[in-house]
Design goal:
The protein is of the alpha+beta class. It is about 50% helix and about 10% strand. The strands form two sheets. The chain has a five-stranded mixed beta sheet. It has a four-stranded antiparallel beta sheet with strand order 6-7-8-9, with no helix packed on it.
Length: about 400
């Protein structure tokens, strides 16, 4: 009698598919060992011992490689996100105070005592930081070595320290004063945003905008930073500086700031408290300077030597009233003397005058023997030396 087959027949296609299923012997062929659940040492292992051995053996190679790749991708993404955040100035860093050059660019804010001894606002800021820490970050820019020629910024990013200050001078000064006073480590670093301005002009704009938003600048401070930035070669002219630094100001406001640049050029070394100069008195001084009374104003300031802002304003008021009462005062001066601007000239007798800048006019007379003459508060010994040097260079 023929034996009956108890198991159903397996189709040939199913047998071929089963042949492709990985088996223990395949593992040994590729990895040199048989996985513990199937090793000869445990030929009759129970389900529990097989599971425990499989767990101890770790994940399958393909799963482990996939997990490692996913981990690396996640880490790379985090690193790139942090790098981009720092590059775009969106990540705060604690930077040692000694690593920051506070004088990297000329400051627009004036009259602040670094130790805060005579500045009520600085005292209040220092005490706030003492009690609550630094709440607002400063802004800095990375610097290269002083001899580096990298970048196309005209040397703006060169310096001897790792970072240059863009904005936050008062906060940095307060932190330094507190660290000097207490020696506490919490005052040894400044919380900072790292900016990378494309040019020095962009850095000046950032500084001015922050101070305008936070406390507001005086007209003299606005004029001074435009003039100083121009002197440093950041802008080609004071007009360009004003148009860039105060792009959002009205034309009338920029005109008044530009008038105050004349006070800066004529009186900067004599004024002790220029940031306190009110606009109305400042415009009266501008008229006197244009009328050639700048030297008289300087003489009055030097002789009076006022020791406070109030005393200086009182002296300027009295001096302006006296000079305005003299013959040839601004109200009686020729229109071209009061209203001239660079490129616009006037005539006095056989002389033709052209205003070169604040407090400086060039006169020319052609009477068979041509003559040139400079006049105004801007005529100084230093200007004479510059002219001589330029003429000698040819």
């Amino acid at each position: 009698m023929a034996r009956r087959r108890l198991n159903p027949a397996i189709p040939a296609a199913a047998e071929e598919a089963a042949a492709d299923v990985p088996r223990a012997e395949h593992f040994a062929e590729h990895f040199g060992r048989v996985p513990p659940p199937f090793a000869p040492a445990d030929p009759g292992g129970t389900r529990e011992t097989v599971a425990a051995a499989a767990f101890a053996a770790g994940p399958a190679p393909i799963a482990r490689v996939a997990a490692e790749a996913a981990g690396r991708a996640a880490l790379d993404e985090v690193v790139e996100t942090l790098r981009r955040a720092e590059a775009e100035g969106r990540m705060l860093r604690a930077i040692p105070l000694d690593d920051i050059a506070a004088d990297h660019i000329a400051r627009d804010r004036m009259g602040a005592d670094p130790l805060g001894a005579a500045d009520e606002e600085m005292i209040a800021l220092r005490e706030s930081i003492r009690a609550h820490g630094q709440r607002m970050p400063i802004e800095v820019t990375p610097l290269r070595g002083p001899a580096s020629d990298e970048g196309g910024d005209g040397g703006f990013a060169r310096g001897t320290l790792p970072f240059g200050l863009i904005s936050g001078w008062r906060r940095l000064a307060a932190l330094r004063a507190l660290f000097e006073e207490t020696g506490e480590e919490r005052f040894a670093t400044a919380t900072a945003l790292i900016r990378r301005p494309a040019s020095a002009g962009e850095a000046y704009v950032a500084m001015v905008e922050e101070n305008e938003i936070r406390l507001g600048l005086s007209q003299y401070e606005r004029a001074r930073i435009a003039a100083v930035a121009t002197e440093r070669g950041v802008f080609p002219s004071e007009k360009a500086a004003l148009l860039t630094l105060f792009a959002n100001a009205s034309r009338a406001k920029r005109s008044r700031i530009r008038a105050f640049t004349e006070i800066y050029h004529a009186l900067d070394g004599a004024l002790g408290f220029p940031a306190h100069l009110p606009e109305r008195l400042g415009l009266r001084l501008v008229e006197l300077i244009r009328a050639g009374r700048g030297d008289a104003l300087v003489a009055a300031l030097v002789a009076g030597a006022p020791r406070s802002a109030e005393a200086e304003l009182d002296l300027l008021e009295r001096t302006a009233a006296r000079l305005e009462a003299e013959p040839g005062a601004p109200s009686e001066a020729a229109p071209e003397a009061r209203e001239a601007s660079p490129g616009r000239g006037g005539t006095e007798g056989d002389w033709s005058w052209e205003r070169l800048g604040p407090g400086l006019e060039l006169g020319f007379r052609d009477g068979g023997k041509p003559e040139l003459r400079l006049r105004g508060a801007g005529v100084t010994a230093a200007l004479r030396e510059k002219i001589l040097a330029a003429l000698r260079r040819g």
